[in-house]
Design brief:
Helix content is 23%, strand content 36%. The protein is of the alpha+beta class. Keywords: Monooxygenase, Oxidoreductase.
Length: 107
Amino acid sequence: MWIVMNQLRVQNGKADQVAARFQTTKGIEQMEGFVRMQVLVDLSQEEHDIVTIMTTWEKQADFHAWQTSQAYKGVHKKRDEGTSEVKPLVLTNAVTEYAVVADHTHA
């Protein structure tokens, strides 16, 4: 398994607006190897909010195939053109990738 986390540092009080953008998946769910997408909101910081988009994939190559897909390009078109209504609310972001080496679930 492969997990990718995109952590967005967001203007204080704007997490709900950013998280709303991820309420629908717009094609990622059709990609080979896609397992799940979770959107996490951290409101514990005083100076900003944090929205983390966590996707789980069968393998690293599946995630990289998503990044080069037409669906990905379509979803990120407004961001790339500078016309996204969400991008101005995002102060910074960091993408990290993880190999899952242990996974425990409820029995």
